[in-house]
Amino acid sequence: MLTISMDQALYLKAYDGCDGFPKLSWKYIGVYIPPAGNAFFDDPRYPQDLARADYKMWQRPFLDKSKWAQHDGKIQRVTIDDIKNNQDQFLMTLGGNASLMLSTFEYIRPHSGSRYIRANPQDGQKEWKSRMQKRSMS
Length: 138
Hints:
By secondary structure, the chain is an alpha/beta fold. Helices cover 38% and strands 12% of the residues. It contains six helices and five strands.
């Protein structure tokens, strides 16, 4: 499963399968819910209302999506523990924030032989934003 960030998920949701983009409900795409604040979402040791408060308002609708349950054909959220415990099931994308990447790698501890691909999609993001602006104006 390809995990995408919540902001990438907003773009896919807006396109909803148009212009060659996949639908967010495609069974091989999951929305990565990163740890926020001092708690992990879905961690039973933390009150979920407090964990939700650590996320921005626009992110909270993704917290209500179905938890990853293998490859269902619906929008699924994926937590860092899902990835850590099922590393052979995920291809993960992370933003350009170096400290976020390092802390994520440190927590997940990728298995020996795991692949790391570094890319700089900045030009592609400009194109996406341009297409989204045109789409919202029509």
